[in-house]
């Protein structure tokens, strides 16, 4: 499939998605959200893809937010529809069955930070800046930021970030637990690849089950402990479990 606003490169079992609207700092317009939904669906269905790296084209931005030019003259109902459309994408990424890693190469603001928050792991270049500046537009985060940022860094810090609208530097984001690693920009993609490569040596069945169980924490309608217990039990059915235990007993690496 070809896209107007995305570039997708395949290397080994990793698909790297570049959000590709450099002139607009990769702002998420409606068309880009649509393409991201299509791309993630295609990658979910592709058995040769074991993980996804998500990043922005160019050196300046990961994604500088939802496309503000599409906000003008929207009614409250249209605002709700837009937020739901964005939420569908963020939920699709958060619940993706394979690991998704955000490589934050520059500004990750508003919807851009919400996109990174929906990924399973975040790493940042030392030049990156992150923030949820929606209150300066008379808005609040609408693609999951109030919930996912709070779950990630805690209520007090999320309140400060969202109410001030201030940006954090990459180092501050690291200290606040918003990103897992900060590296130089030229090492960003390679660092993401090596984290994914390590995950690829583990059981894919177990990885998917772990993602689902961890995500249960965000869903009040689900008892996360119960979900963990059931998913743990399901693993006992899988060939990977038999191989993993056998390999341990034979003192060799498992072949998943
Ligand atoms: N939506 C639409 N267009 C955007 C955008 C966004 N979120 N962020 C940047 N752009 C566009 C600018 O309008 C500009 O387009 P133009 O050249 O056609 O005028 C282009 O991207 C470059 O941005 P510019 O503002 O000139 O770059 P800068 O280096 O001076 O500033 C930022 C960079 C990120 C600080 C600034 O672009 C910004 O504040 N963007 C909006 C951030 C935001 O509020 N995001 C949350 C949205 S909910």
Question: Can you characterise this structure?
Answer:
- The chain is an alpha/beta fold and 256 residues long.
- The protein has two domains: 6-199, Alpha-Beta Complex (2-enoyl-CoA Hydratase, Chain A, domain 1), CATH 3.90.226; 203-249.
- 45% of the residues lie in helices and 17% in strands.
- The chain has ten helices and ten strands.
- The chain has helices at residues 30-45, 76-94, 111-118, 145-153, 155-164, 170-175, 188-200, 204-215, 224-235, 239-249, and strands at residues 6-11, 14-19, 51-56, 61-63, 100-104, 107-109, 121-125, 129-131, 167-169, 181-183.
- The strands form two sheets. The protein has a six-stranded mixed sheet, with helices on both faces.
- The chain is globular and about 65 Å long.
- Coenzyme A (COA) binds next to strand 6.
Task: Furnish the topology, listing elements before pairings.
Elements lengths: L5 E6 L2 E6 L10 H16 L5 E6 L4 E3 L12 H19 L5 E5 L2 E3 L1 H8 L2 E5 L3 E3 L13 H9 L1 H10 L2 E3 H6 L5 E3 L4 H13 L3 H12 L8 H12 L3 H11 L7
Parallel strand pairs: 2-3, 3-5, 4-6, 5-7, 6-8, 7-10
Antiparallel strand pairs: 1-2, 8-9
The structure holds coenzyme A.
Q: Biggest sheet, in brief?
A: 6 strands, mixed
Number of domains: 2
CATH architecture verdict of the largest domain: Alpha-Beta Complex
SSE succession: EEHEEHEEHEEHHEHEHHHH
Poorly predicted runs:
none
Mean pLDDT: 97
CATH-defined fold name of the largest domain: 2-enoyl-CoA Hydratase, Chain A, domain 1
Through-space gap between termini: 30 Å
Strand content: 15-25%
- The share of residues in helices is 40-55%
The CATH homologous superfamily of the largest domain is termed: 2-enoyl-CoA Hydratase, Chain A, domain 1
- Helix vs. strand class: alpha/beta
Task: Classify the oligomer.
Answer: single chain
Strand order of the largest sheet: 1-2-3-5-7-10
Instruction: Just give the CATH class of the largest domain.
Output: Alpha Beta
User: Whole-number radius of gyration?
Assistant: 19 Å
Q: Count of DSSP helices?
A: 10
List the bound ligands. coenzyme A
The global form is globular
Number of strands: 10
